[in-house]
Amino acid sequence: MSFSDSGTPPDFRSLGLLGGKRVVYTEERWQFLRRKRSRALAIMTALVQRGLAPVVHGSVARGDVRASSDVDVFIPRPVPSYLVEVALAEAGFSWQYREVVKATPLYVTKAYIHLDELTTVSFPLQKLSCTEREFYRFGGELDLEGLKKGRRVPGVTKQLVLIVPTEDGHEEYEVVGREHVVARVLGVSIATVQERVRVLTRRREVGRTGVFRKVVVPEGKSVEEVAVEYRLL
After folding, report:
1. For 160, phi and psi rounded to 5 degrees?
2. What is the pLDDT at residue 48?
3. In whole angstroms, what is the distance from residue 50 CA to residue 83 CA?
4. Domain locations in the chain?
5. Parallel, antiparallel, or unpaired: how do β-strands 155-156 and 21-24 relate?
6. 136 to each of 22, 84, 227, how far by Cα in Å?
7. CA–CA dist 194, 131 (Å, integer)
8. Rounded Cα–Cα distance for residues 59 and 54 (Å)
9. Hey, which bits of the chain come out as E strands?
10. 154 Cβ partners below 8 Å, 6+ apart?
């Protein structure tokens, strides 16, 4: 569910979402959002022109950005890495480095193209499971059309706070204890919400434990070659 900056926010009270903390954005924060979205828009436009279907996910989709917020663009289906790289290069983008990442033994392998320290383009090298696909919806995601229309969508932060956009900012709700309501608001399964709560709670308690495998792709090699070489496919 989403709404335009100029539109009326959807009423989630019928889903049982009550008692949120109201946050009003300053003009500076709106400016941060416009800049982050301008960056995402340029990247996603370049990818769409090559027939790809990217989304931007996280705070840029929700709207609750800071100066330090990442711009994370994701292509939800496996695509040849050369196609992504050509699309970016033709639009004038260069990258600092590329990585092949397998977060856990059970998750699919993904490629990450780091354009700068705050901007990445990523895509899976294998078909995502339904749960993995919903992880991005859990955090909030927007396609190019939604971005162009100025929409903001609900999603959950790494601190397990549900962000629900409002006309002048957003409302915040603790996820723990509201898992079923959060699943309905986001349109994802309760299993996905429970899994993210488990993972993010553990991360908050013991710290980030790292990923299962992460390999930097050297110049002259493709993402796929490195994934095969390190038996990540």
Report:
1. 60, 45
2. 99
3. 7
4. 3-229
5. unpaired
6. 24, 19, 23
7. 11
8. 16
9. 3-4, 21-24, 55-57, 71-74, 97-102, 110-116, 119-124, 141-143, 151-152, 155-156, 161-166, 169-174, 213-217
10. 1, 2, 12, 62, 140, 162, 163, 164, 165, 185, 186
The rounded distance, in Å, linking the Cα atoms of 167 and 179 is: 25
Please say whether the beta carbons of 74 and 122 come within 8 A: yes
Q: What is the pLDDT of residues 140-169, one digit of tens each?
A: 999 999 999 999 999 999 999 999 999 999
Q: How far does CA 118 lie from the centroid of its chain?
A: 13
% of residues, the chain, pLDDT over 70? 93
pLDDT at 211 over 70: yes
d(CA 121, CA 109): 14
- On whether the CB atoms of residues 209 and 92 are closer than 8 A, the answer is no
Q: 93: buried, middle or exposed (CB in 10 Å: 19+, 13-18, 0-12)?
A: middle
Q: Is the pTM of this model over 0.85?
A: yes
Output the CA angle 137-41-193, nearest 5 degrees. 10
Residue type, 121: V
- Count Cα neighbours of 214 within 13 Å in the Cβ-side half-sphere: 8
CA dihedral 99, 60, 104, 192 (to 10 degrees): -160
- 205 phi, psi to nearest 5 deg: -85, -40
* Token code pair at residue 195: 């899994």
> What's the average model confidence in pLDDT over 227-232?
97
pLDDT band at 4 (very low <50, low <70, confident <90, very high): very low
What type of residue is 137? R
Q: How many angstroms separate the CA atoms of 199 and 218, rounded?
A: 31
